[in-house]
């Protein structure tokens, strides 16, 4: 169910936590500042009154000029302080909401997150949440200021002549009707605007991250078409919004400014009849229509408010993804068991069915199978990146669903096929948020066979990695990932082994790093190179949506046709490479 505007604002204040008191104080100061708007008009009126009563002296002028001066200073001082407080509250809240969303994403199932594209998530984290600052730091205090000012002036005008004060309000009634027309049915439009900016962001991200591919296939113009389409879509959404809101906005501006058309003739008539004093007539002619123009920014606030509500809604959508919370201690035994597991990414096609395996504590097991058979899926279920549809994944004697998620992630290390490096330094990339000392990081890097290389970099461990680790080769990146895992020293290790680890020398280094990493751990290796299997205790074949055969290399070779054929092909390929090159290309050595 869609939340009401009020509920969304209350939700935002809840996210603000204690910082909402800054916001409340800012609103109170804004209110007083707004109310003091009437003070200068009061001072001017009093001077006029004294002039017409022929009682105006130097003292009277000085007295009311002082009142006027203090009124203006007081008003701006309060409004300025309100702005400082509202900005403090707003930026603290923004920080909290961004941290909450990021933290929540880390605890949410990967499946739910990957339904959203990167552009959509980036839009929520940047643009949508940024709009909350606009609301908290500007709209909230300004809304109070722009409303309370005219209310204070209206009340003051009522004390001078209540009938003419009421006349001055007539344009406001029409202005509000027009404003209502302007905002009716804009929710969907704002939603579309938010979607179009998310699409635009996704296209830009895709364009930049796929730059190499675009160049390699000379896809520049085609990719640009996709980008320009996204820009056009965004533009057309905003054109629609402008078409809907533009005319009523123009009417609103005209209406609030045309109070004089009523005040001057009616006020003049009453003055002629003697029911209105000259000073009151001048006051109304001067202020009577002007004070309503203070309400003009309300329209702009209204437009932005619709966008802010959309921002709150979007942030809430991510925060409402059910996260993995609670759970018991990580078990002492590090055996892993899949029991009758069934799993599908999309809810329709089963990638795994009746899948069973028992991995002993401290055992080293290789998963083999054709490309797309489901090897990576099996290991991702072990780390609870996704939840199974049926059956159980157990670590020790516990279902992974019952283990505290943070403890689970702490106790499982994964080295992915494709290494992701953050933009920071090499040191930060190996530490990954831990408190490890430089010496501990270097020791891990030595074991991963990458320390010597890092020391040759211009700033050693402080060298910046660059976006997406652009300055490192595939093999170097992999060894950095191995160093990370060595430093983390988790008892369960999952290696989604890469085939692209470059030249044999690099491969040898990586293998040495991996051997150091595996010591004393329960290890599951997704083996893309068959030679890796010989370093494992057992091998499991993933085929036909299940784990079809588990045993030692010899046992599986005898029992499983896929594995037997794969080894035959592998050995024949090795013989061919011997006869072609005449050298020893054995990658197992
Ligand atoms: N996030 C995903 N959403 C939908 N389908 C997916 C997803 N990830 C993988 N798949 C599909 O699941 C099947 C198994 O993929 P998986 O990556 O587990 O295979 P694999 O054996 O590890 O393959 P490879 O050896 O090529 O890495 C494939 O058909 C793949 O297209």
TrEMBL record:
MF annotations from Gene Ontology: ABC-type transporter activity; ATP binding; ATP hydrolysis activity
Signal sequence interval, chain numbering: none
Domain ABC transmembrane type-1, first and last residues per copy: 25-307
Domain ABC transporter: 336-569
Membrane topology label: Multi-pass membrane protein
Keyword field: ATP-binding, Cell membrane, Membrane, Nucleotide-binding, Transmembrane, Transmembrane helix, Transport
InterPro entries according to UniProt: AAA+_ATPase (IPR003593), ABC1_TM_dom (IPR011527), ABC1_TM_sf (IPR036640), ABC_transporter-like_ATP-bd (IPR003439), ABC_transporter-like_CS (IPR017871), P-loop_NTPase (IPR027417), Type_1_exporter (IPR039421)
SUPFAM superfamilies in the record: ABC transporter transmembrane region, P-loop containing nucleoside triphosphate hydrolases
Main location: membrane
Segments crossing the lipid bilayer: 21-41, 61-78, 143-162, 168-186, 249-270, 276-293
Cell compartment(s), UniProt: Cell membrane
GO cellular component, one term: plasma membrane
UniProt cross-references to Pfam families, sorted A to Z: ABC_membrane, ABC_tran
Name used for this protein in its record: ABC transporter ATP-binding protein
Organism: Vallitalea guaymasensis
């Amino acid at each position: 169910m869609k939340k009401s505007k009020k509920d969304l604002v209350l939700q935002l204040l809840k996210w603000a936590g204690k910082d909402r008191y800054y916001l409340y104080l800012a609103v109170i100061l804004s209110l007083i500042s707004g109310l003091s708007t009437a003070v200068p008009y009061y001072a001017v009126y009093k001077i006029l009154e004294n002039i017409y009563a022929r009682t105006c002296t130097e003292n009277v002028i000085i007295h009311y000029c002082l009142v006027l001066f203090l009124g203006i200073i007081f008003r701006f001082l309060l409004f300025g302080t309100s702005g400082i407080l509202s900005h403090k509250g707003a930026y603290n809240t923004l920080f909290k909401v961004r941290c909450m969303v990021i933290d929540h994403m880390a605890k949410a199932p990967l499946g739910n997150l990957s339904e959203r594209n990167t552009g959509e998530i980036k839009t929520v984290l940047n643009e949508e949440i940024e709009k909350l600052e606009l609301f908290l730091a500007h709209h909230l205090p300004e809304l109070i200021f722009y409303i309370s000012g005219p209310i204070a002036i209206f009340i003051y005008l009522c004390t001078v002549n209540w009938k003419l004060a009421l006349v001055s309000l007539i344009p406001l009634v029409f202005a509000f009707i027009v404003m209502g027309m302007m905002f009716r049915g804009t929710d969907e439009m704002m939603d579309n605007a938010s979607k179009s900016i998310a699409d635009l962001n996704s296209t830009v991200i895709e364009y930049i991250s796929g730059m190499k591919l675009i160049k390699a296939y000379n896809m520049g113009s085609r990719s640009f078409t996709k980008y320009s389409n996204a820009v056009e879509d965004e533009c057309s959404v905003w054109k629609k919004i402008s078409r809907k809101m533009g005319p009523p906005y123009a009417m609103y501006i005209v209406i609030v400014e045309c109070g004089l058309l009523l005040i001057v003739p009616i006020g003049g008539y009453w003055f002629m009849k003697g029911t209105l004093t000259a000073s009151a007539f001048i006051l109304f002619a001067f202020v009577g229509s002007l004070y309503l123009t203070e309400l003009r920014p309300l329209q702009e606030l209204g437009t932005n408010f619709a966008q802010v509500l959309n921002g709150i809604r979007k942030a809430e959508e991510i925060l409402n993804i059910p996260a993995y919370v609670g759970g018991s201690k990580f078990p002492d035994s590090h055996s892993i068991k899949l029991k009758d597991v069934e799993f599908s990414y999309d809810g329709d096609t089963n990638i795994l069915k009746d899948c069973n395996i028992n991995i002993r504590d401290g055992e080293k097991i290789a998963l083999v199978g054709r490309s797309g058979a489901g090897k990576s899926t099996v290991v991702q279920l072990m780390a609870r990146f996704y939840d199974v549809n049926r059956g159980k994944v157990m670590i020790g004697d516990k279902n992974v669903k019952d283990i505290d998620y943070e403890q689970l992630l702490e106790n499982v290390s994964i080295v992915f096929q494709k290494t992701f490096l953050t933009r920071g330094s090499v040191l930060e990339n190996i530490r990954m948020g831990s408190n490890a000392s430089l010496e501990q990081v270097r020791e891990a890097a030595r074991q991963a066979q990458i320390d010597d290389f890092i020391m040759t970099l211009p700033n050693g461990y402080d060298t910046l990695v660059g976006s997406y680790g652009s300055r490192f080769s595939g093999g170097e990146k992999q060894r950095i990932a191995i160093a990370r895992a060595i430093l983390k020293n988790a008892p369960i290790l999952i290696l989604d082994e890469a085939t692209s680890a470059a030249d044999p020398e690099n491969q040898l280094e990586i293998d040495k790093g991996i051997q150091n990493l595996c010591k004393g751990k329960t290890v599951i290796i997704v083996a893309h190179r068959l030679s890796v299997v010989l370093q494992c205790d057992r091998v499991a074949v993933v085929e036909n949506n299940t784990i079809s055969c588990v045993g030692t290399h010899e046992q599986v070779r005898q029992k499983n046709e896929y594995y037997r054929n794969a080894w035959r092909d592998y050995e024949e390929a090795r013989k061919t490479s011997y006869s072609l090159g005449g050298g020893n290309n054995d990658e197992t050595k």
